[in-house]
Design goal:
Number of strands of chain B: 0
Number of domains of chain B: 1
CATH superfamily of chain B: Hydantoin permease
Shape of chain A: elongated
Number of domains of chain A: 1
Radius of gyration of chain A: 23 Å
Low-confidence stretches of chain B: 1-13
Oligomer: heterodimer
CATH architecture of chain B: Orthogonal Bundle
Distance between the termini of chain B: 49 Å
Number of helices of chain B: 20
Low-confidence stretches of chain A: none
Order of helices and strands of chain A: HHH
Largest interface: A-B, 51 and 76 residues
CATH topology of chain B: Hydantoin permease
Order of helices and strands of chain B: HHHHHHHHHHHHHHHHHHHH
Largest sheet of chain B: none
Mean pLDDT of chain A: 79
Helix content of chain A: 55-70%
Shape of chain B: globular
Structural class of chain B: mainly alpha
Number of helices of chain A: 3
Number of strands of chain A: 0
């Protein structure tokens, strides 16, 4: 999905741009940061966390339904 | 991820500025001017906002009812010293959000999605949307409770909440949105005024700082009370909101010091106002009326306070609930909108017009609208939703906190602004405590539902 923002003309840029850091510009923030390289232990830890969160969520949802 | 069209300017060699950049640049020019002329208080005024809003947003309707309910059932002991400690813990987490937002200029959702993969990004956003939706329902309930004191019903609560969302979004500027919500959030102080009207004993208040008297009840009750209070100190929406709002505000590494003051001020105000609600509730215990107040069964809290202390305190408490619910609706809807825009990869800024950020504005209004519809459904299980909103947010919080800690330690992103050893020791301790309390709270809630514990 692409939404094209209204842009400001070049002559108006000079004064405005001095107040912003370059990586603060909207166009720059849309450039994705590189993917982090995770070690095996970190990946396993994150998977354990995901499973634990899903299990606990299931418990809470069950408790919610049981109380209805 | 679809980036907005960015054509290089032949004059400046910079991408052409979008309307979002122009609005942010205007705000930043005032910050630069204040800094250049050493106008410290003006600089603080300009840079305050995300921290205060995150902290006072957390003093939402359900939280204030819970504090008052704790005061009415258990008195001041344990809670008066515990509330400031909890907000100190919240400060540790929220400071990291502010710092990451100021250094990377990106929101939490997009950083998790880009650094750790789409699965984690969408998992975080999904868990946020779910918990936000149930929390928003609870906020509308709180507004309804407050308005019912004045004889007004659900329809008015829904209209008020939605009108506020639409009004704050109408300016097309982050600055306007932030200042409007900030002005509204300061009325969280009504709980403090209500507490003063109850004429609390300063001696007992001072005595409670020694954690005495401890609440009565079984060890399980005490642990659950502690877990629910600790676990609810930081919520997923606060993490998404403060990081994204700091980036949207245009904060930079130069502003991190002021961002810390902003977050600390928010924590102090939230702790004082939270204690205000607790003390107001404790007035019912003094009068012997506290036994009937149990969480959301305390829907008649303002009326009970009015009966015991006087109509002024009751009315202030009721207005406080309306304010607490309204501010939380605005900040929680904003956090949903930021997460939606960041994960889908489209414009996600209050500085962009609705025409250019349709997803952001639609998510902001949409989530509030869905919550509003639920509370006017006859027979909807609002009590159960409100009670479980907190539990769900608590059990899903560790995932958000772990990624927050990973981002704050990511030297590729943060450079010299990454966490230091001492910050990490404190932050890991906080994350572990919150995670354990959250897990205990969730498991206890489940065991109660299958009648393993009472």
């Amino acid at each position: 999905m692409s939404e094209e923002p209204t842009t400001i003309g070049a002559p108006e840029c000079e004064e405005l741009i001095m107040h912003l850091e370059r990586d603060q510009l909207a166009a720059e923030t849309f450039r994705p940061v590189p993917r982090a390289k995770l070690g095996r232990r970190a990946t396993l830890g994150l998977w354990a966390l995901r499973i634990a969160a899903l299990l606990l969520s299931a418990m809470v949802i069950y408790a919610f339904v049981a109380r209805l | 991820m679809s980036a907005p069209e960015a054509t290089a300017s032949p004059i400046l060699g910079h991408p052409l500025l979008s309307e979002e950049d122009a609005a942010r640049s205007h705000d930043r020019s005032r910050v630069h001017h204040a800094r250049r002329h050493d106008r410290r208080w003006h600089l603080m005024w300009l840079l305050a906002g995300p921290g205060i809003l995150a902290m006072l947003g957390e003093n939402d309707g359900p939280s204030m009812i819970a504090y008052a309910s704790d005061g009415a059932q258990y008195g001041l002991g344990l809670f008066v010293p515990l509330i400031p400690i909890l907000f100190a813990l919240a400060f540790v987490c929220q400071e990291m959000c502010m710092r990451i937002g100021a250094v990377t200029h990106r929101g939490y959702g997009e950083l998790v999605l880009q650094r750790y993969g789409r699965a984690w990004g969408w998992f975080g956003a999904g868990d946020l949307c779910l918990t936000n939706l149930v929390t928003l329902i609870a906020e509308f309930v709180a507004i309804r409770v407050g308005l019912s004191y004045f004889g007004l019903g659900s329809g008015v609560a829904v209209a008020l909440g939605l009108a506020l969302v639409l009004f704050t979004l109408s300016g097309g500027r982050y600055w306007r949105w932030e200042r409007t919500v900030l002005g509204l959030a300061l009325f969280n102080g009504l709980f403090l005024v209500a507490a003063i009207l109850t004429h609390p004993s300063l001696g007992k208040l001072a005595h409670s700082l020694t954690f005495t008297p401890l609440p009565h009840g079984s060890l399980n009750t005490l642990l659950l009370l502690l877990a629910s209070t600790v676990g609810a100190t930081v919520t997923p929406w606060m993490i998404f909101f403060q990081q994204s709002a700091s980036a949207d505000k245009g904060m930079t590494p130069n502003d991190v010091g002021h961002g810390r003051y902003d977050t600390a001020l928010g924590a102090v105000l939230a702790a004082i106002f939270g204690i205000g609600a607790l003390v107001a509730g404790a007035a019912l215990l003094r009068s012997g009326s506290g036994a009937g107040i149990h969480g959301y069964a305390g829907a008649g809290f303002p009326a009970a306070l009015s009966h015991v202390v006087g109509s002024g305190a009751g009315a202030l408490f009721a207005l406080g609930l309306v304010e607490a619910g309204a501010v939380a609706i605005l900040t929680i809807s904003a956090s949903t909108a930021y997460a939606a825009g960041e994960c889908i990869g489209v414009s996600h800024s209050f500085n962009t017009s609705p025409r250019n950020a349709a997803v952001f504005y639609a998510a902001n209004v949409g989530v509030a609208l869905i919550a509003a519809v639920v509370i006017v459904i006859p027979g909807a299980p609002l009590l159960s939703i409100a009670l479980n909103a907190n539990v769900l947010a608590t059990v899903l919080l560790p995932v958000s906190l772990v990624f927050l800690l990973m981002l704050a330690n990511d030297r590729e992103l943060m450079g010299g602004w990454a966490n230091r050893l001492t910050t990490n020791i404190i932050a890991i301790g906080v994350v572990t405590a919150v995670a354990l309390c959250g897990a205990a709270y969730g498991i206890d809630s489940f065991l109660q539902s299958i009648h393993v514990v009472g």
